[in-house]
Automatic annotation (TrEMBL):
It comes from Paenibacillus zeirhizosphaerae. Residues 14-191 form the Metallo-beta-lactamase domain. This is MBL fold metallo-hydrolase. PANTHER family: HYDROXYACYLGLUTATHIONE HYDROLASE GLOC (PTHR46233:SF3). Counteracts the endogenous Pycsar antiviral defense system. Phosphodiesterase that enables metal-dependent hydrolysis of host cyclic nucleotide Pycsar defense signals such as cCMP and cUMP. The keyword Repeat does not apply. Signal peptide: none annotated. It catalyses: 3',5'-cyclic CMP + H2O = CMP + H(+); 3',5'-cyclic UMP + H2O = UMP + H(+). CDD domains: metallo-hydrolase-like_MBL-fold. InterPro entries: MBL_Glyoxalase_II, Metallo-B-lactamas, RibonucZ/Hydroxyglut_hydro. Keywords: Hydrolase, Metal-binding, Zinc. Its cofactor is Zn(2+).
Length: 208
């Protein structure tokens, strides 16, 4: 079964939201509906969306959750360490960026995510890795040869650890864990272009 992946760069921080669609059934899921999600909302009109998956709950990754929820009528999945961030502008960081956004809140997620959990969605299996460091509840979703890692690993970069709850040692451990995946795995990050595990192992200047 083929997984079609569409990328939407949302909001002033150009956060990547991903629409994953099963090519056979047309059913979809969304990873990280960020700020100003109008283009994403238009894309899912008339589509059955089974879930919204959050890699973490910083405001630029979850600001569009409630708008997408209203259209898609689907549950949200988030690691429990960041459940409170949905309702707290202080915790989700939106109070730190008044030049970018008003305080952001959203209804809590319906389901928790945990290490090693397997999600059966749109006819595909998504394995959940707990990959903290950028934030305490950051997770990555691994499906076949694709990885949706939020702000853990970027092309030639890694997530920042100077925000509340960030921890450099945890981030290093998380990236090294992802480096154990096959070199051919494509990494879809929270910002910027996609990359591969093999490319980052060889070229990423921050973590080798």
């Amino acid at each position: 079964m083929t997984l079609a992946i569409r990328t939407f760069s949302l909001g002033p921080l150009q956060t990547n939201a991903y629409l994953l669609q099963d090519a056979d059934t047309g059913r979809g899921i969304i990873v990280d509906p960020g700020m100003n999600p109008g283009s994403l909302v238009r894309a899912i009109e008339g589509m059955t969306i089974e879930a919204i998956l959050l890699t973490h709950a910083h405001f630029d990754h979850m600001a569009g959750v409630d708008e997408v929820r209203r259209v898609a009528d689907c549950p949200v999945y988030l690691h429990p360490l960041e459940q409170d961030w949905m309702t707290s502008p202080k915790l989700n960081g939106s109070l730190m960026w008044p030049q970018v956004t008003q305080p952001v809140t959203a209804a809590p997620a319906e389901y928790d995510l945990g290490e090693g959990q397997v999600l059966e969605l749109i006819g595909h299996r998504f394995l959940v890795y707990h990959t903290p460091g950028h934030s305490p509840g950051s997770v990555s979703f691994h499906c076949g040869s694709d990885l949706f890692g939020g702000d853990v690993l970027f092309r030639m970069g890694v997530g920042r650890t100077d925000l509340p709850g960030g921890r450099e040692r945890d981030l290093i451990d998380s990236v090294h864990r992802l480096y154990r995946l096959d070199d051919q795995v494509t990494v879809y990050p929270g910002h910027g272009p996609k990359t591969t595990i093999g490319y980052e192992k060889e070229n990423n200047p921050y973590i080798r």
